[in-house]
């Protein structure tokens, strides 16, 4: 769409960049992660009370300042797979879109997990610390297993068409071969 006043291109709804423009699959519920979240929240409140008492400072400032960091830590810890405008995240590993050519999905029979992987462009390397064991059903060097009931291929394809770069393809790996996701 163009602005009639100065004939420049105006960003459309698909040109937006924000938090909601992502596809995310989380790890299953973890009591350890939830305990860490509550421990961090209680620690921040205790720090706010201590600072309020010792320094005669407003404790709410500490709580408000710390909350985004705590929530971000918890979301990052729970994320198994995510793509957004910055790239693709496999757990803690972030790959830029320029290093990826395809996303590959496999749902092996009799397996409670769906497998999501990425193929790299020639010359791109897998970042250090990605010691993910390869599953034989998924022919991709970097992969993650997610719970099948949390994975939605239709939503993934729709979000990728809307927000991922146009060169990215999503392929489905079956025992009979690979085919593009529709």
Note down, in words, how this protein is organized.
- The protein contains three helices and nine strands.
- It has 182 residues and is an alpha+beta fold.
- It is elongated.
- It has helices at 31-54, 59-78, 153-163; strands at 23-26, 79-84, 87-90, 93-95, 100-106, 113-120, 142-147, 169-174, 177-180.
Largest sheet: 5 strands, mixed
Using only CA atoms, what is the Rg? 21 Å
Distance between the termini: 28 Å
Question: How would you describe the shape?
Answer: elongated
Q: Percent helix among the residues?
A: 25-40%
Return residue spans where pLDDT drops below 50 for at least 5 consecutive residues: 1-18
Q: Which strand order does the major sheet show?
A: 7-6-5-8-9
The structure class reads alpha+beta
Overall average pLDDT = 75
* Total strands: 9
Q: Report the order of strands and helices.
A: EHHEEEEEEHEE
| Residue share in β-strands | 25-35%
Number of helices: 3
């Amino acid at each position: 769409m163009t602005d009639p006043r100065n004939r420049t291109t105006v960003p459309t709804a698909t040109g937006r960049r924000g938090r909601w423009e992502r596809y995310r699959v989380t790890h299953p519920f973890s009591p350890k992660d939830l305990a860490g979240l509550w421990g961090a929240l209680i620690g921040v409140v205790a720090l706010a009370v201590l600072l309020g008492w010792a320094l005669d400072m407003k404790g709410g400032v500490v709580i408000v300042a710390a909350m985004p960091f705590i929530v971000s830590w918890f979301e990052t810890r729970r994320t198994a797979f995510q793509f957004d405008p910055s790239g693709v995240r496999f757990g803690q590993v972030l790959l830029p879109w320029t290093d990826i050519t395809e996303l590959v999905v496999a749902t092996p029979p009799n397996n409670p997990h769906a497998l999501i992987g990425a193929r790299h462009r020639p010359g791109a390397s897998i970042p250090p610390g990605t010691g993910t064991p390869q599953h034989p059903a998924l022919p991709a060097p970097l992969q993650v297993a997610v719970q099948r009931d949390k994975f939605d291929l239709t939503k993934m394809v729709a979000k990728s068409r809307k927000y991922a770069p146009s060169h990215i393809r999503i392929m489905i790996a079956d025992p009979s071969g690979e085919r593009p996701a529709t």
